[in-house]
Structure formats: C-alpha cells, structure tokens
Backbone:
C-alpha cells in the first residue's frame, strides 16, 4: 500500500528548530537532535548534534537570516516534509537581501518526544555571490 503525505499544521518543534537556525540559540530548538542524528545538507554529511550546530554556526553566523515555513506535510513511518524560503543578507551588506527556497525532509525515530534520526536539506538556487 503506497504511503501518502498529507498537509498538516506546522508542529511547534519545527518552528523552534527553524528559529534556532536563525538565532543560533540551539537549546530548545535542537532538542530533537541527538548524537545519533545525521544531517545531509547538499553534499555535506554531518553526524551528531554538536557537528550539526557547528555547521549552522559556520554558514549562518555571517548572515542575517530568517527561515519561513510555507508548507508542511506528514507521511507514514515518521517522514515529514517542509518547504520554505530563507531571506538572507551578509551582516556586512544588510541591504543586499536574497530569498532562497529550501526543503527539509525529517526522518523521525520517535514522535513523542520528537527525535530526528536523519534530516536532508536542499537549498537554492541561490545568488551565492550575495551571501558568500
């Protein structure tokens, strides 16, 4: 029997997760990640919550960035899909803002409390010269 995703309200844990990426204040927002979590961001593969935090600090600290969730779906077996847009600018050039689409696919180990086994992120296209 095929699994079908259905649109659903964005869970509070997802909004906290996105806010943590924007503010780089990881406490509550990154609670669903563990030392066993894997994240794939483009060609990067990171293992464990501390490596994932360090990656976001590396790519987001030079930026003013805001992630907006546009759509959210839940499917069977702990698979959740998120489509959004990020608005960003270098802190050194805050008036040169760009928007980039992104997708997150969360594979959850458990729903309550939420624990993320794997997170896959795609982002772009992006005017990289503006933000890198």
Residues:
């Amino acid at each position: 029997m095929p699994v079908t995703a259905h649109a659903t309200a964005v869970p509070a844990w997802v909004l906290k997760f996105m806010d943590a990426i924007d503010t780089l204040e990881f406490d509550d927002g990154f609670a669903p990640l563990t030392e066993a979590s894997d994240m794939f961001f483009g060609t990067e593969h990171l293992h464990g919550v501390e490596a994932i935090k360090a990656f976001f600090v590396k790519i987001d600290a030079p930026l003013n960035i805001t992630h907006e969730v546009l759509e959210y779906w839940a499917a069977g077996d702990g698979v959740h899909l998120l489509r959004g847009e990020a608005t960003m600018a270098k802190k050194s050039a805050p008036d040169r803002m760009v928007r980039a689409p992104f997708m997150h696919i969360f594979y959850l180990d458990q729903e309550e409390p939420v624990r993320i086994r794997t997170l896959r992120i795609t982002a772009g296209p992006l005017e990289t010269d503006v933000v890198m």
Observations:
- The beta strands are 6-7, 38-41, 44-47, 63-74, 79-90, 98-111, 114-123.
- The CA atoms of residues 24 and 61 lie 8 Å apart.
